[in-house]
Amino acid sequence: xxxxxxxxxxxxxxxxxGNVALVEAAVAKAAEAGADMAxxxxxxxxxxxxxxxxxxxxxxxxxxxxSMEVNSPIPxxxxxxLTADKERQKPFNGVVRVDHSRTSKIVGRKQLLPTYDVFDxxxxxxxxxxxxxxxxxxxxxxxITICEDxxxxxxxxxxxxxxxxxxxxxxxxHQGEPLAVSVNLSSSPYHLSKEGIRAKLVRKAASTLGHxxxxxxxxxxxxxxxxxxxxxxxxxxxxxVQGPAWSTGILxxxxxxxxxxxxxxxxxxTFKLEIVAPNEQPTHPPKGHDLLSAVTMGLADYCQKxxxxxxVLGMSGGIDSAVCAAIACDAVGPENVLxxxxxxxxSSDHSIEDAKATAEALGMELQTLPINDIHSxxxxxxxxxLNSGHPVAKENLQARIRGTLVMGAANARGAxxxxxxxxxxxxxxxxxxxxxxxxxxxxxxxxxxxxVYEVAKAINSRATGSPPITESTMxxxxxxxxxxxxxxxxxxxxxxxxxxxxxxxxxxxIRNPSPLTEDILxxxxxxxxxxxxxxxxxxxxxxxxxxxWRQPLASRR
Length: 557
Fold this sequence. Notes:
Layout: E1 3-8, H1 16-32, E2 37-39, H2 57-68, E3 76-82, E4 92-99, E5 102-109, E6 132-137, E7 140-146, H3 148-151, H4 165-174, E8 181-186, H5 194-209, E9 213-217, E10 219-222, E11 225-228, E12 232-234, E13 240-242, E14 249-254, E15 262-265, E16 274-276, H6 287-306, E17 311-314, H7 319-332, E18 337-341, H8 349-362, E19 365-368, H9 372-381, H10 383-388, H11 392-413, E20 416-417, H12 423-428, H13 449-462, H14 471-475, H15 495-508, H16 515-526, H17 528-532
Parallel strand pairs: 1-2, 2-3, 7-8, 8-9, 17-18, 17-20, 18-19
Antiparallel strand pairs: 1-14, 3-4, 4-5, 6-7, 9-12, 10-11, 12-13, 13-16, 14-15
């Protein structure tokens, strides 16, 4: 019997001592539980992604030296940056093996360096020419790959690499290097339904290799990237064991007995692992619930890792701000969230009442700050320009007044303002720079409007008291309320029409020719300047605005 522990942890980028402490505490628990070996996620010592910190040779050297000194009672494979072999070369993305009874050793370096979507590893690393092997265990040699090294094997990459590390491991076995198990140290960013792809990956790798294939994934949020955990193991017969999502813990895998797997939580969650029979798929949670867990962890980790304790947001009584308020309360606690209701001459009574009902259900503070007087004085000051200029300027003034109040309150309280806009609005430019786009984080920035409603339903279903999102908020026509009797459909197609067109183009590159599609895509491209100024938003789709969407500003189409 050989038991391998997958340490599903939430490291902080740059906190080397803190990350080492996380690893040491987890591997000690794994050893107490009977593990013979443990494996971390990719670059756990530096945290992932460290980005341009990797250009600091001193930082890379410290990562390597600290990983070599990790205290572990059992053989432990640690993901870490490694220094270059020669001057004027890039570092490696590698694996160090530590064990209290052996000298620490480099046992693997990443081969395949992704340079697409949110990845830019060719900027930071040089690639190795083969997978790794560790022979610490008397009963089992272990094949080693790092994240992308395994994805080539199932074709889930935009273009083929020159090598397939899984096939290389299989060839080594045929040449007399018997392996009992192979592992993959991964920091695989989340997007909807990615777990099904990971199941395909471990099954195919295990089938090719003829032995179990184990993938340890990072969990948590770092800036705009989310990591869902769901560490997973596959066997040649197609059996799968998958760990929980959105939770730190230890997945113990007996490589000979899948049904003996167990999960040791390292947080307050009580999630359980899942054993999946051959020809079946891992359970997919309802879309709204998975998205809610994702963006909540994203905001919570962004605040915790940045030292942010309080949040301020505008609350209009609409669906977006209500959902953001609920997410904020879950992320930092309702006692640390301030909502500002800022009614104008165009605000409806039900909007104010909906905002109050949401705040009361969440147990958060709400202040009402009417903006009519401020609005009138600004109107008077700019009367000549407004009367002779573009009519939308008058609407934008209201959003910018509100943005000023939100930022003022946030500054006064030492808090972070959050922007409440969604992906549909950001795509169409239906948002105001220096107004409702103000904020340090946009929890809904990668959710289409129709997805926001799914998240709202999930919030209400989890509520232990009154549902925070009122029936009125759920059913009334979306409106910015910047003009008399205004609704979003005065300026946009219905979101049920708009969102599929946007998703087809942004995420799949599909452009169905029609006058409506051409108009939508024209507006999409015309508003790129707004998205360049967007604060971080947690990525939940396979192509989000930000790192994975690199469009020029000064261009013609």
